[in-house]
Each structure stands twice: as structure tokens, then as C-alpha cells.
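Run folding on both entries below.
>entry_1
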Amino acid sequence: MKSKKQLIFLSLAIGLLLMLVKFIAYFITHSNAILTDAAESIVNVIASSFAFYSIYLSSQPKDQNHPYGHGKVEFFSAFVEGVLIIIAGIIIFFKSIYNAFYPQEIKDLFDGSLLIGLTGLVNGLLGFYLVNRGKVLNSLTLHADGKHLLTDAVSSFGLMLGLLVMAFTGLNWLDSLISMGLALYIISNGYKLMRLSVGGLMDESDVNIVENVIKQLSINRRPAWIDVHNLRIQRYGDAIHIDCHVTLPYYFDLNKVHAEITDIDKIINENVANTELFIHTDPCVFQCCHYCNVENCPVRQEPKTKEIAWDIDNVTKNHKHFEVI
């Protein structure tokens, strides 16, 4: 968690510095497009500040009021960042329309484009680093902040090219057009970030994690694990909560059941980072016999006639496998 705080603090400090550089570029050139980029930097700083607080809060231990921890705040942080991005984009878009009818004198475009290109390079490198660290640390906040910075870098490079075109051609009316295009790009990325955060807050299933869990269970499958069903996964920040039902032979005693469940828990925790597993055990019924792999079963009613592979369709259903095949 200390690493997350350091990374987001680095993002905040660099964001403040780049915001200052962009406003200097605006005062040099009086370009509305540069003001657009500078205004988005204000959003970057606000978003990074909120992200820093969310990482601090998500690091707090579980308590009586938050038995699953505080990790969900990271989804809320990403949602707020998305909203701020969209608001900034809308304001920028309408200001661009205003300046199309009431343009300002633009000057020193070469100097302005150089400063904007420099900020784009720094944001791109930092954004790429944060996205990768966010994946490693399972942090949506770092991932979202990195994506935001990459968006800012792309818009800055696009702006730099536009400024150079204006400098060579003298077509200053492109200033408002470029600004409007950047605003639409910013709004689009804000929406994507909001969509991602809402999915997390609504416990939308992460297909990649579900498939990885099923893969690990299939690779390490044992004959006594007759089927696995009602698999559900929730994310709380970097923590992954998994619950499922496992069908075991009904004649297993409690110690044997506990041993099998402990082995499943160990397999998942060794192969899926930072998981907490809750397993409900179901006793087998005679309808399971035709796909049960237990050899020399003392209560088998019919021979095994079918092999049922575990996949996302049957493992996530709330039924034993003979009910969904």
C-alpha cells in the first residue's frame, strides 16, 4: 500500500508542475486550444488528490462497519475522476464554440507547441508506468489515473501538431476546431472511465478473473470434486472475494470435507493474487453418478457415462451440473 501512495503522490506532484507549464504556454500564446489542455490539467490535479485519499482510505483495515474492507472506494474514486473529466470536456467544448465566433489573437505558437509537447511526453511516460503498476498491484485507482494521464498525453501531442500546422499555415481558425476535437476526445474517455467504475460498484463480473479461477480448478481437479457451481467474484480494491459451491461425496465426514476445501483454497490463493475464498459444500445426489469421477464409490447407482468439462457456463450457474447440461 505504501507503494501505491508514493505513486499517486508522484502523479499529483508532477500534475501540479505540468499544469503550471501549460498555463505559461497559454499566457505566451493566448491559444484557446492550449487553455483547453491547461484546464484539463486542473482536473488531473483534483482527480489525483481524490485518488490519493481513496488509496489512503482503501488501505485501512477491516472493521465492524466494513467487514470486506474499504477497497470499494477505489471504484468511487474512478467514478469521480470520470465525472470531472466529462465536466471539463463539456466546458471546454462550449468555450471553443464561443472563441470560434470571438477569436483571440494568437502568437508564439512554436514556443507554445514545444512546452505542450514536453508536458505530453512526461504525462505519457508517467501514465504508461501507472497503468502497468496498477495492473501489478490490482489497483483500479492507479490504473484510472494512468489512463487519464495517457489521455492527456494523446491530446497534448495532437494539440502540438495542430499548433505547428497553425504556425506554418496561419490558419488560426483551426485553434477552436482543435479545441472542440480535444474536448470530444476527453468526454469519450471520461465516459469509459465512469463505465468501468460503475461496473465495479455494481459487482459486474470480471470475466478474465472468472476464467482464470475456473482454469486453475480444472487443472488441479480431483475425483472427489464432483462439480463446482454458483461461482461468484467481487472486487474490493485490490482484494478479490470468491464464493462458490462444491459438490462432494455425501459420505465424507467433516474432517475430510474440510481437508478438500482447504486444498481448493490453497490452489486459488497460489494462482490468483490477493483472494479470499468462501466455499459452500453440497452433498452429491444419485443424479451425479453419471459424471462422477470417484473410483470404487461405495454408493454409486449407475456407471460414469459422461465427462463434463468445467467452463464459465456451468460453473457460474447456481445448479449442480446435471441440472444445467
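>entry_2
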Amino acid sequence: MALGAPAPPVRAAGSRLTGAAYGSDVTDSINFLTNPPEFVGLQNAVQSIPNATWTALTLDAEQLDSYNGHSTSTNTSRYVAQVAGWYTVCGVYATAANATGFRAARIQVNGSPVLGAAAYAPVASGTVEMGVVTPTRSIQLAVNDFVEVAGYQSSGGALNTVLDIDMRTGLWVRFSRAI
């Protein structure tokens, strides 16, 4: 079922506000504005990230998914837009300690990178886990477009994500406005 952001009603001059019209014109709009599409997904299981390959990061736990745009069992890296519009999106890639190469995170829409939505970080030391946070971006999504956070590492071998209590791979998506 495709949902939509409420639009201002158009009524003929002199028409009366019936109960049904009130429900669709007023109540539905207030309900949408007080409960817009919003998603917070996190990783609760370690994921192995191959060397030198952009990899969509799995999100097997939800803190919030107000419009059921995410599944914890199928395509778990994806948040699928249920309402067309502009969304504010940010992600983080939390990676195990390793002294070689660099780490990066980016936002992807339908598997393709979003221009200006990647962050690269040199490794500070081989003893510290690190999180790479994408820039927060406004991204236009159509219904059924999907957004992901992807990670990249160049250590020379596979590296796991980490599950610290204060740092974890995640994705945040919030509807900002209609198109």
C-alpha cells in the first residue's frame, strides 16, 4: 500500500465539512505530521567486511520503524521508503581495530552511492576500534526506493564490524518534507 504525505484539501466554494471530509482533511494530516516515517536500525550481529569492497551493512535490530520500511529477516541492510519525499539520512560503520589502510562509510540509494554522502578516515592505530560516520544528507526518495549505509576497508583482509555498547553500525532515516 503506497502512502502519501497529506496535501491541502481542495473544496468547492460553499461545500460543508462532513465527518468523512474532516477525517481525511484534518485528522489524517495531523496523524501524519505527528508520526512521520522514521527509522533507526542497528547491528546486533557481527558482519565480516571483505577487503577493498563496498559492502551494504546489515541491520538486524530496530529501535524505531514507524512505517514498516525495514525487515530484520530479508534485505536487512535496506530501509524502503513507504512515502515519497525528502528524507534526512545518516549512517555509521563501526569497525574492528587494525593498523592497515583506511575505513570509509557512505549512503547508497538503490545500491548506488549518493554524491557527497561518503566519509573516509585514516586508521589512527591498530589498537582502537573506530566508527566512520557519513555526512547527514537530505535525499529524495520515491516509494520503494531503498537507502543503505555501506562500509569499506582496506586492511588487506576481511575485518569484522564491532558491537560495542556505545558504538555500533547503524542507519537513521527521517521523513523531512513532501516532494
